[in-house]
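step: validate -> pass
step: tokenize input -> pass
step: predict -> running
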Amino acid sequence: MVSFLLCVVDFGLLNAAFFFLNYWKRGTLDLSSRYERLLLISYGIWFVVSLLTRKFRVRAYGGYWDVIALYVRSGLYGAYCAAFIVVMWGLSEYSRLHVFGTWGLLALMEGVLFSGYYVVAGSREQGAGCRGLEGERVRGLEGERVRRGKVSRFLVVSDFVLVGGAFFIANYLKRGNFYLLPEYEKMLLIMYGLWFGTSLTTRKFVRGAYPNYYHALWPWLKTVVLMVAMMSILVFGLRIFYFSRTQVFGTMLVLLALEVLFVGLYFMVKKHGKAGRDIETIDDVKARLRQRPLPADMGREEIRRFLMTPVRGYLKAEVLKGNSQVFEMLARSVNLEDIVQAETAVLESNEILKPGLMGSRPLRLFINLRKINDVRWMNRYFLSVYESLSNGGYFFSKAHTIYTHRKWIYRKYPKQIANGIYLIDFVMNRIIPKLPVTKQIYFALTKGKGRVLSKAEVLGRLCFCGFDIVAEKEIDDRLYFLVRKAKTASVEQNPSYGPLVGFTRIGADNEPIRVHKFRTMHPYSEFLQDYVYAKSGLREGGKLEDDFRMTEWGKCLRRLWLDELPMLYNWVRGDLKLFGVRPLSPHYLSLYPSDLQEMRGKVKPGLVPPFYADMPKTFDEICESERRYIEAYLEHPIKTQWGYFWWAFYNIVFKGARSH
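step: predict -> pass
step: emit ->
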């Protein structure tokens, strides 16, 4: 969470550093028009660098030296950016002391201020409160460690040639020939010096077991960025503005393009070499398997014996070979010795099953090895599987959820790149498929393949289509699920999919009413209430424990009570009172004692429940709270409403009472 106080204090330190150096240099606090522009530039740099370094996220702070390093790093980044802007805009008139000193003095003051706070707060408490960063590092990209090896001389020599080639290419683009102007040999030597130093820092020539191309390319990208930063410092610090900026920074841009291609080819060659060659000789075949005669025909009894063999061995040795976790999950949830191969179907397809495709045989286990995200009409597909299974039959498959998809992105790409990719992916695969206009375009182009679904939507769709959830587990960045055909598909409740959702609740006289709220849960969540309750039960305050159906922005809406604004319509219609028992779903109401259910039918539900007056903690206390309210209301309606309302108002406004 961003600390607003720390942000304000740091902004003040930036101004103090800037005006102090102005006074030191010129003997006055008044700024000239040129330095007013420099101050505005410094504000922009400070804002961007603070975002990139996450300087104001206090909960993410590590130990003392981690925070000091953070301030030093942000100061260096600020100096790099300032020098780059000065050089690119040709602002050679600015004082080097003022430009570089501002960021150095800011880092120094930040370090002194934090050191004072550290001493006052106590190192023990600070260390205890700053462990968040270490945990974040473990969860982030740094968890993907690269096994370091030796320096590759081939990479060193190749990149040395690329630097020289990029310099002469930039010279040709600038002047139309490869001849260098006087003094430009010095610039080439300076670039080679920067290249050598930054390459050592980023260790880009060290051969490592990189998981993919993007991680292999990342040290090379950092090297070019560091070269740009250091070159900006040198040009401004040494006042060598007579060199062409197109020549200088164009070289690094060309170098980056050449290195992207080079690393891609190098990584592909290495990967191909590790994969080995194909089986092309008799010796290769013999090493793979022993040749043996195969029977030309099989007797009817042998075929029957094969079909009546339990499916467990076939799944373990063939279908799920090499994925022991998935097999163990399936074997723990289903008695695979009781299901034979004739009752099993295994596919890897995103096509909807056609009637009769599986023949007339009753299937007890259907397995699809393809992730369901690639199925265009998901509910149609689930219903086709439902129709192919016998009563009590099992369906086993996998899905790519929002959570597993995010983990996959951050494991595939370096963290800095993953942040941008995740943002783009969020818009493309989660926002666009849900907007009325763009939705049609999205599905026309993608055919629905690869769209990202929440865990709640996947399981909710299955429940909507008549399945009960038997088991679900995340394995290798996929959600594997096992469901059972145990009921008819839903014919009483339509699934909700928009920002405004309607729910069936029990009103006065135990008659169903329709209430509306802003969406706070993932689509199809309403079909999972029984499952979440059976799995986790209730927590303090009477809410479901570990309710994965809730969205992050939905939690915010609930904390602010914005999700219940549409219920004012039910109040205007007369379905609800201003104060009264909470309108409950049929499932939640079934948890209440039978006598309390009958009592609830005698009163009209309300927007503000007795919960906020009594603030009960357990489910039994909630029942007793509502029982007391109903008894009091039936005896003295006006007095009870008036007293309970102001009691709840006091708890909400002055004590911050909230339903969690």
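step: describe -> The first helix runs from residue 4 to 26.
step: cleanup -> pass
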